[in-house]
Amino acid sequence: MKTGRLAMCFWLAGAAMAAAPQTGSSVNAADGRIRVQLMSRHAVTLSSEIPAKISAIPVVEGGSFRRGQALVEFDCSSYRAQLHKAQASLEAASQLLKVDNQLAKYNSVGTLELTQAQGKAKEAAADASYAQTLVSKCSIVAPFDGRVAKRSAAVHQYVNPGNPILDIVDSDSLELRMLVPSKWLATLKPGSRFTVAVDELGASFPAKIERLGAQIDPVSQSILAIGVIDGKAANLLPGMSGWASFK
């Protein structure tokens, strides 16, 4: 009697699991739609390459910027002082080498002294180049047109190399990423057209496949497909999602 009741409980549990809707799937079996996400082609976390204190961040979260614009500036007074010192040492070493070269023409300086002067000039040039490189890292400029997604540091904060400061994205260059069944490769090609309905906007946009992934996932039997929306839509943002419908 107990065995019969236990079997009945297992049967009811299995029936309930079979009837429960499956969530999180990227494919809608009813109409063949594919879940898709909008992602930026260019998304970068900016960080410092030198240990320094932030003196200015002239952009705000959500704000836009242009390529080449300064996004972060550091207090580099000590690095600039080191550069001036290195440049002065280079000038002195260069003058000494110039004099020794003139004396060498009249055999008034030994080979050892001339070699040492050449070595000091090269060393001073290397020090000046290194100091100049450090000063060149006293500001971070935008590598592309975009917007600020997140600020992780503040003005007057001291940061070490590698510490995140700004997350930036190019919101104008978006791509659609989706996983499609690998059996679709028989008909799905670069240039194949589809429509994407964006959940956040409640609107649909025409799009096309730009490229396909390089390998098939053997477990899910799916492959990455990347598409682009035709034209430009200013209200689209990275992170939005929706459904792709193929004709």
From TrEMBL:
- InterPro entries given for it? RND_pump_MFP
Q: Which PANTHER family match?
A: HLYD FAMILY OF SECRETION PROTEINS, MULTIDRUG RESISTANCE PROTEIN MDTA
- Family the entry assigns: Belongs to the membrane fusion protein (MFP) (TC 8.A.1) family.
Q: Does the keyword Hydrolase apply?
A: no
Q: Which NCBIfam families match?
A: RND_mfp
Signal peptide (residue range): 1-18
Q: Would the keyword Cell cycle be found if you checked this record's keyword annotation? A: no
UniProt name for this protein:
Efflux RND transporter periplasmic adaptor subunit
Q: Which residues form a coiled coil?
A: none
Q: What are the protein's UniProt keywords?
A: Signal
Instruction: Please report the organism this UniProt entry assigns to the protein.
Output: Chromobacterium amazonense
